[in-house]
Amino acid sequence: MAKVTINQVRSVEWGKSYNWDLRFTEDQPDSPFDEWFPAIDVEEGIASLETFMVSDAFLSSYEIPMGTSPRTLRITFIDDAKHTLLSWMEEWVNSVVLNKRDHVSTLEKSVRTVMVRRTTGNGETIENKRIGIRSYYVFPKDTISYTGNSSSDLLTYSVTFAIAGVSGEFSG
Amino acid sequence: MTRPSINQLRGVGDFAQMIRWNLSFPTLPSGVSVGSPAAELNLRCESADVPKMTNQKIETNIRGHKVFDAGISNYTNTITLTFVETVDNMIHEFIRSWRELLWETNTGVTVPKTSYQAVCMLTRLNNQDNPTWYYEMIGCFPEDYEAGGTLDGVTSDFIKPTLTLSYDYFKDAAL
Question: Which among A5, A9, A18 has the least Cβ separation from residue B60?
Fold first, then answer.
């Protein structure tokens, strides 16, 4: 088999890590983030496979597929001077899900829909039905904390969302 | 193909000259002192950087074959203006009053970005002093400045403050 040539490498349109978009499509935050979401990083659990270790009686062992585990979506975003997104997240957790500490809502009422889209350089969705656009039902997990400090920086949050389901055409 | 001839070179037209340009601020925050009239800043501006954009190219290196893709393009995001100061301290007051909008002395009070940003424009001129090209920098505010040299007892020169403006992006086109 011949070695890879430089023209083979040149002929591929390589993927770039900044060509993506993300927005909440239902129960969006207030303006200006109802039209776009200021996410700066996203880590999306696409597929997860748990394995079972099979050990034979002698010297070896091997793994077989067993099932899947919960997936998460981690979004890092920046907030505006009015703390629009922090307020939106707080309301989601404490009012929508926890009902002001009165009871916990059902999963159906707790989730919101977020869409992650992979784009070409000109902003169009890539032609790939399985991965181009994925919409998830998610709810925030763990603690959402405000951190004030004394440095000249933006307000940045990293929030992990549990993926409770996938909406839309692709249901993988 | 032969070398260019002298008549071909003579037919190119007038070459653009470094000295033909103007500085203006179509939008300046209220509260920034620019003297009267505002064109006084243009009179005192000795030199100006020209904004540009660079591309952060991406390297693909597979088993010794190195190729490049265009990546994110970045504006330089700063330009530096060099002024000549006059004894009425016009440039110092221009810088000081703008600086105060960003961080008020003693209190550290800051006005919103919509109230401290400016639009800065550099216009290149032809040899008849007609505008031929413009650079319009949007979202300008003072990022750094130098007061104009060290005060001493031996140097015979004018005080020449420099002002480094931060900008978000620029537009440029022929006029």
Answer: A9
Q: Where are the domains of chain A?
A: 15-166
Q: Band of the pLDDT at A172, cuts 50, 70, 90?
A: very low
Band of pLDDT at residue A169, cut at 50, 70 and 90:
low
Considering the domain delimited by A15-166, tell me its CATH architecture: Beta Barrel (2.40)
Residue recorded with tokens 């585990």: A69
Cβ neighbour number for residue B36 with a 10 Å cutoff:
8
A4 and B65 within 8 Å at the Cβ level: the answer is: yes
Residue whose entry in the numeric block shows the structure tokens 């099979």? A54
> Nearest CB to A4: which of B58, B63, B112?
B63
Percent of chain B exceeding pLDDT 90 equals: 87
Average pLDDT, chain B: 93
Residues of chain B found within 8 Å of residue A10, distances taken between Cβ atoms: 67
Q: Is the ipTM of this complex over 0.85?
A: no
Residues of A in contact with B71 (CB under 8 A): 16
CA distance B67 to chain A (A): 6
- Domains along the sequence of chain B with CATH: 17-174 (2.30.110)
pLDDT reported for residue A57: 64
Residue type present at position A61:
S
CA torsion A135-A140-A145-A148 (nearest 10°) is 10
Q: Is there a contact between A4 and B60 if contact means CB atoms under 8 Å apart?
A: no
Given the structure tokens 């961080």, which residue do they identify?
B103
- Whole-number Å distance between alpha carbons of B175 and B160: 31
Name the maximum alpha-carbon separation found in chain A. 68
CB contact under 8 A, A16 and B58: yes
B123/B131 Cα distance (integer angstroms): 6
pTM of the model: 0.87
- Which residues are A89's β-sheet partners? none
Residues of chain B contacting A, Cβ within 8 Å: 58, 60, 62-63, 65, 67, 69, 71-72, 112
